[in-house]
Here is the input.
Amino acid sequence: MKNLFIKAVSILGLVLALQTNLYAQTPKFKVLILAERGGYHEGFVVAALDWLNKLASEKGFEFTVVNNTNLVDAGYLSQYKVFMQLNYPPYMWTDKAKAAFVKYIEEGRGGWVGFHHASLLGEFDGYQMWDWFSGFLGGIRYKNYIAATASSDANKGEITMQLISNIVPEKLEISFPQIHYITGKTKMLRLDSDSNLPLITYVKESPGTDYLKTTLFDIACYYYISGNIPQYRNYIGQVKQKGRELHNRDIEAAFEANKTELPNRWLMRADYLVKGGYTERAEDDLSKVSDPGKLNETEKVQFYYLRGECKRLINKVKDAESAYLKAFETGKNSGDYISQKALVQAGLMMEKNGAFQLAEKYYHLCLRFRANSNPYSDLYQNKAKAGLIRLSISE
Here is the structure.
């Protein structure tokens, strides 16, 4: 398999190295791009295709983009000297496409290059792993860490903890501080009394500077929720001083740490609980906000947004929509970024429930939203753009 991989990439290198063109109007070669569209990494895919357009013009090749493997067979692949997987995983392929691709690679008919999800090998989204492809990429198989991370992002705190419990750090071939990171993050989602311990361990053991700010911010929030204001201020200070602002989570942590007002403790608790999927506990905490009318505008927006999240997670669509709209109306004039987030969540919820016209409405509202300077707006706008692309593809 290793030789096959080297051979495939070598062919790609030779093709890209061609600099002469015998026929001015004839492309030097053709590339088939299998791209995953409309997902979390849509911005990456859009940027890649823009870059490829420029490169194709400069180097004299052309490419075709497909978003599934329905057309792919041996005859179809024979037109192309390069096969590119642009964030498209090695599953959701037809059997015909799999057989054609294996032949294409094993017989040296063209080169291959893959980006990001192209190597997402394991059991994902209900699909079994493609063993041949795993061998092609050197025996890759992702296990519990990625599954746990995805579960955490999907508001499934208890499932995340179950997945993490299956990881035995002593059996890992290398040190893996990220286990402490995701463990601490997940414990914070259910407000465990020892949530700070794995987070502090991650800060001590992590060799790099990434994800330090977000981890330190979570530790600060742990102490704030516990009523330890001096330690809260201590770790907020560390957020400002340590790590770097490269990844979204670190950028967002730095932004939150620079706010001057102390947060509302009940809203902070509810925010963590909602992210973990603990809706009953979150709603209980929201009920302890004695008079929502006396909250400042930022807190009101967050209050209504969190109420919408609670209702969405128990599939009370109308109630969730009503709460999201209150969050939007409350913060739209000031450009509160949570108001924009409420629009994205409303669009995603409507899309999931088949209310496509309403989903389109909320995605467009999100794109027209004029948010104050913050690190979140690009993320929400990209999600709205991705949603509109999905809706256009499904028509």
Summary: Residues 127 and 241 are 44 Å apart (CA to CA). Residues 18-24 have pLDDT under 50 and may be disordered.
